[in-house]
Amino acid sequence: MEIGIYSFVERTPDTRTGRLIDADRRLRDLLEEIALADRLGLDVFGIGEHHRPDYVSSSPAVILGAAAAITKRIRLTSAVTVLSSDDPVRVFQDFATVDLLSGGRAEIMAGRGSFIESFPLFGYSLDDYDALFAEKLDLLLSLRENERISWSGTHRAALSGQGVYPRPVQTPLPVWIAVGGTQQSVVRAGRLGLPMALAIIGGLPEKFKPFVDLHRRGAEEAGLEPPRLSINSHGYIAPTREEALEESFPYVSSAMNRIGQERGWSPMRRADYNTAATLRGANFVGTSQEVVDKILFQHELFGHDRFLLQFTIGGIPHEGILRSIELLGREVVPRVREELERRAA
Length: 345
Prior knowledge:
Helices cover 46% and strands 17% of the residues. By secondary structure, it is of the alpha/beta class. The strands form 2 sheets. The chain has an 8-stranded parallel barrel with strand order 1-2-3-5-8-9-10-12, surrounded by 8 helices. The two termini are 15 Å apart. The model has no long low-confidence stretch (mean pLDDT 96).
């Protein structure tokens, strides 16, 4: 199993001090986090695209290009690229460039996005939410297969044999479909034989098993090999369970409640947070061994190939993020791999 990290590069006031970190400082901290993950042998680092004042990640490919220059082996992916409001030609060119800079370590995680700010920003209508993604995904997949392309659609100017450059090291450039629980997206990924990244950030994980089965069944019905599966979740690791809960809750609850006000969610209570951090909950908050146990528990449910954790929720201080990365790389990853190898044998 590949194990890694993703970040939205959040920049919000510290809930305890009220201090707001400068955007340039946040990006320098992020590059330190990516470099540490690479040194520790983690497999993947992802950057999510957002166009809001509380994130510094409107251009993941630029950040990943900087990360390519300071890393050696870690794979670099968007998490996600909001393909519906972007130009697939430009997306392909950007990530082909990251692939060249990194020696073949770039990936695209394409999704429709959990926020909608990019649609009016780039002149798209939310009425076309589904149609935009389907059409642009079709173009993106065509671009990675063909150097010169003839294509036409409804929401973008046609292409009539133009060449699209540069070409990446990897053939084809990996494209994952990111899903938050929309059945249509799951079916699409399966029928196209594309790997799926399933976000589980709330509720009981076993309730997501039907989506995993649907993804694999879609590929089987299309006569394709079972595509890869990633589970993407929130977490925080500390030497003791109480430290992990106490240190992370103020930041995570602040962030989730801020978003919840926009979406009509109930406020997050400490009891809810503690429950989500138990074995059958959604969040990976606790000691290294608790995180190990939870990864293995979910692997029995899903049989997934990749697991990504988001530590940087609500502006958790940089020092705590670095410690979580250290514990993930030095303690969690070796134990998970040893146990999975034992089970396989």
